[in-house]
Design a protein that fits this description.
The chain starts with 8 loop residues before the first helix and ends with a helix. The protein has helices spanning 9-22, 40-53, 80-92, 126-136, 158-185, 198-202, 215-226, and strands at residues 34-35, 59-60, 96-102, 105-111, 117-124, 189-194, 210-211. The chain is of the alpha/beta class and 228 residues long. The longest helix has 28 residues, at 158-185.
Length: 228
């Protein structure tokens, strides 16, 4: 379910119970709830959901500190999703890591071989960029983002030119920033792509060593397993 800070606990419950039923689970099957969010209003409503409908006090990711070091000057400002990605990535791989997450923002996070979060990059997400382009230029149509059918970067229609600008622009950003991050790290680093749009870029870039779409959820599961 897409996060909407205006959605109440009761609205979440209706959606969630339907999804559980579709997968063959009952409400009583839920033994633990864990929440990872950076939206205070959503946190409140999800906490009410957990207590009212599942009779459970939720584990809130990061509330009692993190099991990895956040080696940055302002660790309290690091988004929960980025820390969860770091936790899951390090649990699966012993290497230095560069984690590229295609969400609302496109983030690049560096995790060293010890599991410490070292910092990263925040760039506009691809859909955010596309929305801004359409909103700012009245004559540009809304298009669906997809991998182009070929590698030509000379568009013959407005829609094609928009797709080239957004898609190949992001490929160039991914390749360029990953190369610069690797050079600064100075050691071999594994590059993991995650998020729903990660698979979209794998066709035309060799930057990724692996695509692991559910890294954030895996991080939540790891924290939940450790919680008493």
């Amino acid at each position: 379910i897409a996060t909407d800070p205006r959605r109440t606990a009761d609205e979440y419950a209706v959606w969630l119970q339907q999804l559980l039923a579709m997968e063959g689970f009952a409400k009583a099957d839920v033994a633990k709830v864990i929440i990872g969010t950076v939206v205070p209003r959503a946190l409140h409503n999800l906490t009410v959901l957990s207590q009212k409908y599942f009779h459970l006090d939720p584990v809130v990711a990061g509330a009692g500190g993190w099991p990895i070091a956040l080696d940055v000057p302002e660790p309290e400002t690091v988004g929960a999703d980025r820390v969860l990605n770091a936790i899951a990535g390090h649990a699966r791989h012993d290497d230095d890591l560069i984690i590229v997450d295609f969400g609302t923002a496109t983030t690049f996070d560096v995790v060293d071989f010890s599991g410490a979060y070292k910092g990263g990059i925040i760039a506009p997400g691809i859909n955010l960029s596309l929305d801004a382009l359409v909103a700012a230029a009245a004559k540009l149509p809304r298009i669906a983002i997809e991998a182009p059918a070929d590698t030509s970067v000379i568009g013959r229609t407005t829609e094609r030119q928009m797709l080239i600008g957004v898609y190949w622009g992001y490929v160039a950003m991914i390749d360029g920033l990953v190369a610069r991050l690797k050079a600064e790290i100075g050691r071999p680093a594994r590059v993991i792509a995650t998020g729903g749009l990660a698979i979209l870029f794998d066709k035309y870039t060799d930057a990724f060593d692996s695509i692991e779409p559910d890294l954030t959820i895996q991080g939540l599961a790891l924290l939940a397993a450790k919680a008493s």
